[in-house]
Input
Amino acid sequence: MDGQTSEPEIRLLVAEDHPSLARSLAEGLKEEGYSVDMALDGLEAERLLGGNHYGCVVLDLILPGKDGLTILKDLRGRGDQTPVLCVTARDGLDDRVQGLDLGADDYLVKPFAWDELLARVRAVIRRERGHARPKYTVGDLEIDVVSRSVTRAGKTIHLTAREFMLLHYLASRQGQVVSRAEISRHLYGQDDEASSNVVDVYIGYLRNKIDKPFEQKLIHTRRGAGYQMSAAATVAAASGE
Output
């Protein structure tokens, strides 16, 4: 594990019911620069998938509570195209075909080499990002995900890596109210009180650069709920700003 990755902001979910293997995978992926959540059963995996955005899910097909194939089927059934790498001890051709037919992006049979799993995770992420939306526009704010550049009213805005990550996340959820816990999980893989306070700090940093120099505000506080990014004037009125 060389600790090298060109996209450290990517968040992964490892759904594996063997605690030692799950921890090993999560720790290894973190060393590669990814943010990682871990689920030891299918119900926890489903809960995490319902409230978060992942660059890839490493999904064991044999999980307690709810099996991986059912999770995959439900995920694709609701239109969620999150990349999924199925990992399982099942090595029969029928099992692999079923997983791929249900929408898995790749399939890896246990036991596997670490380097192979890592290469496959990178491959499914690259394929998905090849179809990802490269730019976001919110009012006169433009965010280029590929070049990681931000402009507003034609003026270049310089952001730190963490600020860009936060802005990208808010823009990708444009018009939606995003809770502090959701932002915290996306940025840090956790949602405790301390990290929620850090979210407020980074929202402040972002507002100073994105909103303060301009009349129209794009980042809005929804009291008791979280934050919302929108150029709509009605949003500001509704949030009391």
